[in-house]
Design goal:
Layout lengths: L2 H20 L3 H8 L3 H8 L7 H11 L3 H5 L16 E5 L5 E9 L3 E9 L4 E4 L7 E8 L2 E5 L2 E5 L4 E5 L4 E4 L6 E8 L5
Antiparallel strand pairs: 1-2, 2-3, 3-10, 4-9, 5-8, 5-10, 6-7, 6-9
Helix pairs in contact: 2-3, 2-4
Length: 190
Amino acid sequence: MSDLDLLTQSLSRNVKHWRAVRGFTLDVLAARAGVSRGMVIQIEQARTNPSIGTIVKIGDALGVSITTLLDYERGPKVRIVPAERAVRLWHTEAGSYNRLLAGAEAPGPLEMWDWCLMPGENSPSEPHPTGTVELVHVTAGELTLTVDGVEYLVPTGASATFEANTPHTYGNQGTVPMLLVMAVSVPPVQ
């Protein structure tokens, strides 16, 4: 089974599981996530490979991390994620990418990412649920962080934190690749 097949099967199983845990019907999950009922059905039947945006929306609607939705191993309390098992969910031909390094439920979803943005590229994000916080640490280059239409420059070695319930964009307006590590904390579903 390929990595993509494994992730598709895991996503299917975990969306069904968490939808049942939350007591959501297909229609409720679709409405909360802002995706079609047909998309939820296709995901639960492992008949599609949804975009990262769709996976984020479903995770937010269920109140679980992307790591939890894509988790295909159930193990002990300590979980080591080898470098080759980090999940790349977004990339461009120019070489920009993000990778989900690790995640947990504590008490809501908690995720750790690494990102690379090539010069001139950016990655926009829709608002996350109220109470979501993102923390970033730039390890190379300079991040242009736009939150609710306001740009902030975050140079190498600097960190930033913000409430992510408004539109935000990670951008690289520099001439060298920009690398960062990011943590995302989403509040539990009420």
